[in-house]
Design brief:
This protein is an alpha+beta fold. It has a single domain, classed as Outer membrane efflux proteins (OEP), CATH 1.20.1600.10. Strands 1-2-3-4 form a 4-stranded antiparallel β-sheet, with no helix packed on it.
C-alpha cells in the first residue's frame, strides 16, 4: 500500500514560506504556468507599460524565475528521507527452502536532514534575489535603450533646426554678395557648414537602427518582430541625498541580499559538514514466507565515520566557502558605496550643467547669434564671426541634449543600484513589486535634487 499510494514528508517552515512566495509571484508572472497577456505598447503608453512588457517577456528574467522555482523544489529534496529499499532473498538447496522479502530504510543522523533543508532554503532565497535582480536589470536595459533613442532623436531635431538656420545664413550671404557687401568665400563657408551638418545627420539616423535593436532586445523581442513605438518621455528627478540613496541601496539591493543568503547557506553547509562525524543508520525487516509460522529477520546497519582526515577536509572546505561568501558580500558593500558616490556626483554635475545651459548659456548664445546676424547684414561683423556664433549655439544645444541624456541615464543606474528605488515616479518599483512580493524600495519624487 505504501509503494502504491506513496508518502509525503513533513515540510519545513522555510519550505512552506518559499512555496507561498512562489504562488504569489506566479499569480502575476506566470499564472497557471503560462505567460500572461502582455501590455499593449503604443506611442501614448508611459514607460511603465514598456517595463512591465519587458519583465514578462524577457527570456533572461524567465530563466532566472525558473531557476528560482527549481531551487525551491530542492528544499523538499534536501529534507526528505532516502527512498526505502525492497529486498528479496532466497535460500536454495535442491529446492527453495526460504523466500524472504523485506524492506530496508536508511535513516540519517537526526538534524542532518533539517540542516540540509536550511542550506537549500538559503540557496533558494539567493536564487529569488537573482530573479529579482534580473527583473530590475531588464527595467534598466529598457530605460537605457529608450533614453538613448529619445536623445538621439533630440539631437537629430537640433541638427535639423541648425541646418535650417544655416540655409537662412547662406541666403543672407548670397544677398550680401549680390550687393557687394559680402564675398563668395562667405557663401562657401555656409555651404561647408551645411554639408558637414547634413553628413552628421545622416550618421545619426544610421545609428538609430543599432539603438532600436537594443531597445527590442531589452523588451525581449526577436529581430523579426515589428519595430515597437517609443513611450512618452517624462523627465525625472530624485529628491534624495547621496547618503539616502546609499541607505536605500544597502537596505534593498537584491544582489546584496542574495549574497547574504549565500553566506547563510554556507553557514548551514558548515554545520552539515560538522555532522559528518556522526553515523547514519539503516533499519529493515525480512520475513520468511516459506515457514509456518513465518520467520522474521530484523536487520540494522550503522555507518562508521572513521576517515577523520576526509571529514576534516569537508569541514575545512565548507568553512573556506563561508569565508569566501562573507568576503564577496563585504566587497559588494564597499563597491556599492563607491558606485553610489560616483553616480551621485555625475547626477549633480549633469543637473548643474543642464541648469546652466537652459538658464544662462543658451539664451545668451541665441541673443549673440541675432546680434551677429544683424551686424553681418549691416556690415559691421564679418561672416566668420557669424558662423562662429552659429557654431556656439549648436554646441550648446548639443551639450544640453547630452547633459539631459546623461542625467536620465545616471538616474536609471542609481535605480538599478538601489534595486527598488525608482526615479521615475515609482513605475519600475510598482511593476516589479507585482513580480516580487517582498518590499523593494523607495519611489522617486518629482522636484529637488541630490
Amino acid at each position: 500500500m505504501l509503494l502504491l499510494a506513496g508518502c509525503k514528508g513533513m515540510a519545513t517552515k522555510d519550505e512552506r514560506a518559499a512555496r507561498r512566495q512562489v504562488n504569489e509571484v506566479a499569480a502575476n508572472f506566470r499564472p497557471s504556468g503560462q505567460k500572461p497577456a502582455l501590455p499593449a505598447l503604443t506611442a501614448d503608453s508611459g514607460i511603465s507599460n514598456f517595463l512591465a512588457f519587458a519583465m514578462l517577456n524577457q527570456p533572461r528574467v524567465e530563466s532566472a524565475y525558473y531557476d528560482w522555482l527549481a531551487s525551491v523544489e530542492r528544499i523538499t529534496e534536501a529534507r526528505s528521507l532516502p527512498d526505502p529499499q525492497f529486498t528479496f532473498q532466497m535460500d536454495i538447496q535442491n529446492v527453495i527452502t526460504s523466500v524472504m522479502p523485506g524492506l530496508m530504510a536508511a535513516i540519517p543522523w537526526p538534524e542532518k536532514l533539517r540542516t540540509g533543508a536550511h542550506a537549500a532554503s538559503a540557496e533558494s532565497e539567493s536564487k529569488y534575489f537573482v530573479f529579482q535582480s534580473a527583473v530590475y536589470s531588464s527595467a534598466y536595459e529598457v530605460k537605457s535603450a529608450f533614453y538613448r533613442l529619445h536623445f538621439l532623436e533630440e539631437k537629430i531635431r537640433v541638427d535639423g533646426e541648425t541646418l535650417e538656420l544655416l540655409g537662412n545664413l547662406q541666403l543672407a550671404a548670397r544677398a550680401q554678395n549680390e550687393t557687394g557687401k559680402g564675398t563668395l568665400q562667405d557663401i562657401l563657408r555656409a555651404q561647408i557648414e551645411e554639408d558637414s551638418l547634413k553628413n552628421e545627420i545622416a550618421n545619426l539616423k544610421d545609428s538609430r537602427s543599432e539603438l532600436m535593436a537594443r531597445f527590442k532586445a531589452a523588451l525581449g523581442l526577436q529581430a523579426t518582430d515589428p519595430e515597437p513605438p517609443l513611450p512618452r518621455f517624462e523627465s525625472t528627478t530624485l529628491d534624495l541625498t547621496a547618503d539616502q540613496v546609499l541607505e536605500a541601496a544597502v537596505a534593498h539591493n537584491a544582489q546584496l541580499k542574495g549574497m547574504a543568503a549565500d553566506v547563510r547557506a554556507a553557514e548551514a553547509l558548515v554545520r552539515m559538514a560538522q555532522k559528518g562525524r556522526l553515523p547514519d543508520f539503516s533499519l529493515g525487516l525480512m520475513a520468511d514466507a516459506q515457514m509456518s509460522p513465518p520467520l522474521y529477520r530484523p536487520l540494522g546497519t550503522v555507518t562508521l565515520p572513521i576517515w577523520r582526515d576526509k571529514i576534516a577536509a569537508q569541514i575545512g572546505e565548507a568553512q573556506a566557502n563561508k569565508h569566501s561568501a562573507e568576503a564577496r558580500l563585504t566587497d559588494a558593500q564597499i563597491g556599492l558605496a563607491a558606485d553610489v558616490a560616483a553616480r551621485s556626483y555625475v547626477y549633480r554635475e549633469a543637473s548643474r550643467n543642464l541648469t546652466l545651459l537652459n538658464e544662462q548659456l543658451l539664451p545668451k548664445a541665441r541673443q549673440s547669434l541675432e546680434v551677429a546676424r544683424a551686424g553681418y547684414l549691416s556690415g559691421t561683423i564679418d561672416f566668420f564671426n557669424l558662423i562662429d556664433a552659429e557654431r556656439t549655439l549648436l554646441g550648446f544645444e548639443v551639450d544640453r541634449v547630452e547633459a539631459a541624456a546623461q542625467r536620465e541615464l545616471v538616474l536609471a543606474e542609481i535605480s538599478l543600484i538601489a534595486q527598488g528605488m525608482s526615479p521615475s515616479g515609482g513605475t519600475m518599483e510598482s511593476t516589479a513589486r507585482t513580480m516580487t512580493p517582498k518590499p523593494s524600495g523607495i519611489a522617486g519624487k518629482p522636484g529637488g535634487g541630490m
